[in-house]
Design brief:
This protein has about 375 residues and is α/β, with parallel strands linked by helices. The protein contains 16 helices and eleven strands. The chain has two domains: about 240 residues, Aldolase class I (TIM Barrel, Alpha-Beta Barrel), CATH 3.20.20.70; about 80 residues. Strands 3, 4, 5, 6, 7, 8, 9, 10 and 11 form a nine-stranded parallel beta sheet that branches. A two-stranded antiparallel sheet has the order 1-2.
Length: about 375
């Protein structure tokens, strides 16, 4: 059983969570308009539940191979795990063959705890995915997408959705065409990452194009890309034609980002180093319930604590110490020591214990 947050932190969470407004996109409902983007090796059940605790209105799993599901690979099947207490979760599948994708979707639908919807990955730009004709490679042949979508649609009763990029490159922007086909084949919504496939995660997301597509689209659009600061998220929420927004890299650095996006200028709510440590502790508990493999737990904690402290005092030295730690007890003791140091820094210097977000955070990937 996961222990509760402290009363002080839970009160801050509850105050901001109450400001969310539930939404319905096609046949899929969410607790709020800010969702967790699918991220490879990140959005497994422990992270999704953590973000649910911290204000996300819904989430999508990491991309999962249809072939791995159909071959009944042990590791792949474990990736399909959905906790009974999870809400509004989609499972994202990737593959190049519509028949294989349809079979995998049927098997996902038959899980003990099935998702609320199945999402098709047509946005991953990673070479090992694209080289097999999956992910964003599917954008190269939009004339085949009608058959691809309909084959999967006819195989399942669950809602079907898709996540895409704006196109293969700047010369072949085809998001509007893909959205039209998705609508014709009965998909519920389309999520658009505002970069082309060849861009990978470099440059800026093209929100002008996302907004144009969302304004004209015959079905709901979810916008994704570069939403890493609460101010820009609030601004986007107030003006967007999208029905929801998807956050990827931002919450990895700022786990309270979903909640902070509902702050007002009158609020006196501030998240402390102690609050960050409670978040990490809860994530550890979710991980321990999800897998018995100590190495997996340690690796995930290392990744997330390093992302979480980016821009905080002494983060560079701390990062080196994290990856040099000999075992998990040493790692956890190091984390406690660092967070206690941040608390002392906060008491001495006030609320500004973190540098402003910058556009270079995790430029190599994820959302």
């Amino acid at each position: 059983m996961v222990s509760a947050f402290s009363p002080d932190l839970q009160n801050k969470i509850d105050t901001l969570m109450a400001r969310r407004k539930s939404i319905t996109l096609g046949r899929v409902s969410f607790d709020g308009p800010l969702l967790v983007a699918p991220m490879s090796a990140i959005t497994s059940a422990p992270y999704r539940m953590l973000m649910q605790d911290l204000g996300a209105g819904g989430s999508i799993s990491e991309l999962i191979s249809c072939h791995g599901i159909n071959y009944k690979g042990v590791k792949t099947l474990h990736m399909l795990s959905i906790a009974a207490e999870e809400r509004n979760v989609g499972i994202q599948l990737f593959g190049e063959d519509p028949e294989a994708m349809a079979l995998a979707a049927k098997r996902v639908e038959a899980l003990e705890h099935p998702p609320k919807f199945i999402d098709i990955n047509m946005g991953c730009p990673v070479r090992k995915v694209v080289s097999k004709g999956a992910g964003s490679a599917l954008l190269r042949a939009p004339e085949k997408l009608g058959t691809f979508f309909s084959t999967m649609r006819k195989a399942i009763q669950l809602p079907l959705t898709v996540k895409i990029r704006t196109g293969q490159n700047e010369e072949s922007i085809n998001a509007p065409e893909v959205v039209r086909i998705a609508h014709e084949e009965g998909l519920e919504f389309v999520s658009i990452h505002g970069r082309t496939s060849v861009q990978q995660y470099r440059g800026k997301a093209n929100w002008e194009l996302i907004e144009k597509v969302a304004q004209e689209a015959p079905l709901p659009i979810i916008g994704n890309g570069d939403l890493q600061a609460p101010e820009e998220i609030r601004k986007r929420l107030n003006a967007t034609h999208c029905k929801a927004l998807m956050l990827g890299r931002g919450p990895l650095r700022s786990p309270f980002l979903f909640l902070e996006s509902y702050l007002t200028p009158e609020d006196k709510i501030f998240f402390t180093p102690g609050d960050y440590f409670q978040v990490l502790s809860r994530y550890r508990q979710y991980l321990e319930a999800y897998t018995p493999i100590a190495r997996v737990i340690e690796t995930q904690i290392k990744k997330h604590v390093v992302w979480m402290v980016a821009g905080m005092p002494g983060a560079s030295q701390f990062r080196s110490q994290v990856f040099a730690s000999a075992d998990f007890p040493s790692l956890w003791a190091l984390i406690i020591q660092y967070m206690e140091g941040l608390t002392a820094h906060l008491q001495q210097h006030g609320e500004g214990f973190r540098e402003a977000l910058d556009g270079d955070f995790m430029e190599g990937g994820h959302g």
